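RECORD TYPE: inverse folding
INPUT: structure tokens
STRUCTURE:
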């Protein structure tokens, strides 16, 4: 891997700091949040704030679209990994005001969960927040057989149209309607000539032969819907546009705009070849092309290839696409002088009352031993889970879980309270801040529901833990919308919880009961290799994911075994 980076773990903060230093009008608030330096005045004049974001690696998205006429703030997670709900909430608090906030979110599970949870938390604080999810990926059927159409480069057109509507002073409900209409009008399809490499992974997420291209892929380096032989540019463009026109049911005489997007590593020369063919194709079909833009709008690191987006437009949409904007990434953007940076005055946030110091969890307690064992196991399995996830996902699961585990080990001595519920809430807070993508909010939900059930349960100690664990598993299903058989971590968690309950009710000892639960999870995880995924990024691969177990389920097996091992160490006699 050859990249102009320092520490792979620091690429995102390094990149964002460089972006803020060279762009007046943009402030870095820390933790992956960038915002307009005039956010206070935007709030004071009663303008709706627009926030978007997602994993890093798609630059110039999304920080490049922060500015007058587009986004008020953007939130970045680690490379190809959703930002945490806490980070999104920080952005909402920083730029949101009485007019409210609209979140524009690409349709990826981690983004939907974290932005959605942040919206709920902000509403609890009394803020008006709406969310529009963009799923413009025309390569995928919209029939419920997968996790939904992904959000691709067409999302940038939604940013522009909604941003202009907000700049007009429209209320939140109307800006949301405008954004929803724009999202429904756009369709996108991409093709890749090469893979990309996540810095922390160190190797490409897929392999393409010299004579192969990948059709209908997303923006995270994952495989697409089809692999085939390389074709001349004109044939590639004709196939993609044919799919887009059919998908949006665009007829001769209708008005559209075109976005030719560089996936990251495509020369400008080749983009020009693609653009000229696309314009000729639309003209031959009698479709009226009102505007066309060519450039790098939403990328996938250094991936060679491009995507095409078309959107049916009316006079209002076109005027908003033409409206002036001061951003660094939208064509003809105003770019000012080099700056040493500036700060945004965040909206006043009432700090929670500081509780009196409470003794933390004892290091020789069973819970301490179990948590430590789980963290050490996930750190040790980082490479294993990364390799597995690269086969059927985006390759970040092992990295994310290990990052969270290291953070828990660091913060464990500082969690307040000696009871299990308090400690688990502390772990949940660490997890939701440090584990990106889908895993962070799902594991946080598991821990929070488990903690809540421990406090209210009435059964004997072992029974309370069984009830709490089962309730935590239910929380994951409720938040993520998955079921057993969808090829997710639930395929391991549900049978483990059921087996644990049965074993304990039969009078089985703790160690043996945990072994039975672990074995049930192992068996169910192995069976996921034969299941077509319906959730997560594996759902985009169809039968290409068959033969590989679900990485999330595999992680469950690892930490269940670690709990058993940790408790066994605690209970072992001292010689």
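DESIGNED SEQUENCE:
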């Amino acid at each position: 891997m050859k990249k102009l980076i320092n520490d792979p773990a620091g690429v995102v903060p390094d990149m964002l700091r460089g972006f803020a230093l060279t762009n007046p009008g943009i402030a870095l608030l820390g933790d992956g949040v960038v915002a307009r330096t005039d956010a206070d005045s935007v709030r004071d004049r009663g303008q709706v704030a627009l926030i978007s974001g997602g994993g890093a690696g798609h630059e110039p998205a999304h920080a490049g679209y922060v500015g007058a006429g587009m986004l008020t703030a953007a939130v970045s997670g680690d490379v190809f990994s959703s930002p945490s709900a806490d980070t999104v909430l920080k952005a909402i608090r920083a730029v949101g005001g009485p007019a409210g906030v609209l979140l524009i979110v690409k349709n990826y599970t981690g983004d939907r969960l974290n932005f959605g949870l942040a919206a709920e938390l902000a509403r609890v604080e009394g803020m008006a927040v709406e969310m529009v999810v963009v799923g413009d990926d025309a390569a995928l059927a919209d029939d419920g057989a997968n996790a939904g159409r992904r959000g691709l480069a067409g999302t940038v057109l939604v940013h522009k149209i909604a941003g202009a509507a907000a700049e007009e002073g429209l209320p939140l409900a109307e800006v949301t309607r405008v954004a929803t209409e724009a999202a429904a009008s756009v369709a996108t399809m991409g093709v890749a000539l090469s893979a990309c490499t996540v810095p922390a992974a160190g190797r490409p997420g897929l392999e393409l032969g010299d004579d192969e291209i990948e059709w209908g892929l997303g923006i995270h380096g994952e495989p697409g819907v089809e692999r085939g032989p390389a074709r001349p540019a004109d044939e590639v463009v004709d196939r993609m546009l044919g799919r887009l026109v059919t998908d949006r049911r665009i007829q001769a005489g209708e008005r559209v705009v075109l976005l030719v997007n560089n996936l990251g590593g495509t020369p400008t020369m080749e983009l020009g070849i693609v653009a000229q063919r696309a314009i000729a194709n639309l003209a031959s079909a009698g479709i009226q092309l009102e505007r066309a833009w060519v450039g790098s709008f939403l990328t996938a690191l250094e991936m060679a290839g491009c995507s095409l987006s078309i959107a049916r437009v009316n006079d209002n949409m076109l005027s908003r696409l033409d409206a002036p904007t001061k951003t660094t990434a939208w064509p003809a953007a105003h770019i000012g002088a080099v700056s040493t940076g500036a700060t945004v005055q965040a909206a006043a946030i009432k700090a929670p009352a500081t509780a009196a110091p409470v003794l933390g969890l004892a290091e020789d307690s069973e819970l301490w031993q179990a948590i430590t064992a789980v963290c050490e196991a996930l750190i040790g399995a980082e490479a294993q889970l990364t390799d597995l996830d690269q086969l059927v996902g985006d390759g970040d699961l092992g990295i994310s879980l290990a990052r969270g585990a290291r953070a828990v080990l660091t913060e464990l001595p500082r969690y307040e309270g000696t009871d299990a519920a308090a400690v688990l809430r502390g772990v949940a807070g660490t997890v939701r801040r440090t584990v990106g993508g889908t895993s962070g909010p799902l594991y946080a939900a598991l821990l929070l529901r488990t903690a809540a059930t421990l406090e209210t349960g009435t059964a004997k100690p072992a029974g309370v833990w069984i009830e709490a664990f089962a309730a935590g598993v239910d929380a994951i299903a409720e938040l993520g919308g998955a079921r057993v058989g969808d090829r997710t971590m639930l395929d391991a968690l549900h049978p483990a919880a059921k087996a644990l309950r049965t074993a304990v009710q039969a009078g089985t000892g703790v160690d043996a009961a945990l072994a039975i639960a672990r074995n049930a999870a192992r068996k169910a995880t192995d069976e996921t290799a034969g299941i077509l995924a319906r959730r997560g990024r594996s759902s985009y691969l169809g039968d290409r994911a068959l033969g590989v177990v679900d990485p999330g389920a595999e992680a469950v097996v690892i930490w269940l075994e670690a709990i058993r091992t940790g408790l066994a160490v605690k209970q072992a006699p001292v010689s």
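NOTES: Residues 25 and 37 are 5 Å apart (CA to CA).
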